[in-house]
Amino acid sequence: MTRQPAPVSVFSRRGATAATLLGVALVAGCAVQPRQPPAGQAVRPVIGFPNAPAAATPLPAAPLPPPSAAGSPPAGAPYTPAVALRFPDPPVAHATPGLRAGRYSSPAEVRGAFRELAATAAATPGGPTVRMLALGPSQRGETIDALILLRGPATDAASVLAANRPTVLLIGQQHGDEPAPAEALLALSRELAQGSLKGLLDRINVIIVPRANPDGSAAALSATANGTDLARDHLALATPEAQALAQLARDYRPLVVADFGEYSPLVPWQTRFNGIGRFDVLVQQASPANQPEFLARAAEEWFRRPVVAALKAQKLSSEWVHTASSDPREPAVSMGGTSADTSRNVNGLKNSVSLQVQSRGVGLDRLHIQRRVHSLVVAGGSILRSTAGKASELVQLRSYVDREVSAQACRGESVVEAATTPVQYDLTLLNAQTGAERTLSVDWNSALALRKVKVRPRPCGYLLQPSATLVVQKLRLLGVSVQRLSQPASAVPLEQYREHAPTTDRRPENRGRPADALAPPPLDIDLVSGPAEVPANSYYVPLAQPRGNLVLAALEPDSPDSFYNRRIVTALPMVSRVVADPGFKLEPIP
Fold first, then answer.
1. Contact predicate 557/577, CB 8 Å
2. Do residues 563 and 574 lie in contact, with contact meaning Cβ atoms separated by under 8 Å?
3. How far, in Å, CA of 212 to CA of 178, rounded?
4. By three-state DSSP, how is residue 350 classified?
5. CATH, range 35-323+334-388
6. Among 129, 142, 490, 550, which residue carries the largest CB count within 10 Å?
7. For residue range 548-571, what is the model confidence (pLDDT) as tens digits?
8. Coil vs helix vs strand at 273
């Protein structure tokens, strides 16, 4: 098969690899090792919570459900037994509370499993610290649960940061109809607390959010309760679920973030290509405009490649994250792109190594569920092992990238809009009737080499009008530093935005964009330069800070996912570019 070259950076400027930067070799990820089952249980080794509570009563020990590979697909799904047999069950079985009972784990069972792990850890001398975190309520009042695992007595953010160890954040089920990630993250939490991954906590901290969208999960629907696509709400932060994840990332500053989901092997591959999705796992690192080069290289060399190797060692297949439209008028297959509203890309702009990992599963109900869970456990184990193996190098890399981004203020260029690069690519699917592999040459939008569509000189920072309190609130939740002018300023050299009046305002609502929605139409904007009077209590957002690239994505109005496009900035005069050191007298915001 034709493969693209390994990704370098977005808009590469240097030839050095991340390994050259830090002078270390790559490490490959390793899978969780199977253990022997208790007598009388299934032939396959079982990894799980044998005594975890179900709701308010203990779940009795029970044999695992029979292997699912030859089971029946959902009613009406054109999915033949020949295709199903291409995906046999793995050599181990993951016994989460739900999977042991032939279903998915309930919220009560997730909390029960977490409480069991925390209680066991507390009663084990010399063991890791395991504690639950309540991130906040969902739109329907369901608690968004998390588990933190580390070495050391304190789990508050200040103490964790002071220890100077990399923190890994694993997020599951942003889409409620993608259940395998929650089960996989439950399995990983047990392996970290009590099993084969426990030793990694000597070098790293781990935070696990198994079900980021509990309302969608309860209804088996992709979106949140108000119809927002949580997976695309990580810049606008329109939902309490996205706000909870943003606050968690702001407080604990994870160095590695992985978003676990599932993809559909059925739609649109059957209608477009008469095929079925072939790959057990799709995996891709962040690819937004303005991402620091060395961060992109580290994500590829130290993380994605080891994940692929770990999956291959377990006889699991992988490919880049990709999707296609059901509309034949849009012929290309597209990799995960440049949008600055996804967890993968927003966390990349926060200078974290950020990956998206998807198992095959949407539309399959419980078919192949053990294989789907196992593939995510293998990928997650690889990410955790890679972080532990590169712990000191990752801390150095974050420090270097933070300084590099801060130093770019007032100089160089910023990419306002970027696009993927069209190439030809050999993509393997399965014949929908026979299950045989079919390799097709497809039009492929590659995110490995982005094209600059619109660039501007990088300003020193941005001025916000005193009325821009919602803008400030969201920026601070994203971890951006914002200050306030303590007194008026005169003759400040500014650039202000001017839009050539559109006939209609086609900007989307202030909420996450639906997964199948097109990007907003491009804005025709230019800059008007000149000195201006700035009132007291205006806000200043400097670009001389580590999250300066995230500020660009939010505040440049014609950036496709900007606050202006999401109606958080309600009018262009609310934001101005500061193009020289302003010498403002600033005060912190309480």
1. no
2. no
3. 11
4. coil
5. 3.40.630.10
6. 550
7. 999 999 999 999 999 999 999 999
8. helix
Q: Distance between CA 303 and CA 289 in Å, rounded?
A: 20
Regarding pTM above 0.70, the answer is: yes
Say if residues 486 and 545 touch (Cβ distance below 8 Å): no
Measured distance CA(85)–CA(341) in Å, rounded: 37
Q: What is the DSSP string of 286-306?
A: ---TT--HHHHHHIIIIIIHH
Q: How far apart are CA 198 and CA 189, in angstroms?
A: 9
Q: What tokens were used for 579?
A: 């193009």
CB atoms within 10 A of CB 466: 15
Dump the DSSP string for 151-214: SSS--SHHHHHHTT--EEEEEE-SSTT--HHHHHHHHHHHHHHHSTTGGGGGT-EEEEES-S-H
Contact 357, 343 (CB under 8 A): no
Please state the φ and ψ torsions of residue 64, each to the nearest 5 degrees: -65, 155
pLDDT of residue 325: 86
In whole angstroms, give the CA distance from residue 144 to residue 202. Answer: 27
Q: Give dist(CA 3, CA 427) in Å, integer.
A: 9
Give span(s): CATH 3.40.630.10, the chain.
35-323+334-388
Q: Rounded to an integer, what distance in angstroms lies between the CA atom of residue 191 and that of residue 373?
A: 14
Under a CB-based contact definition with an 8 Å cutoff, are residues 589 and 476 in contact?
yes
Q: Can you name the residues that pair with 430 across neighbouring β-strands? A: 276, 437
CA–CA separation, 369 vs 374, rounded Å?
Answer: 8
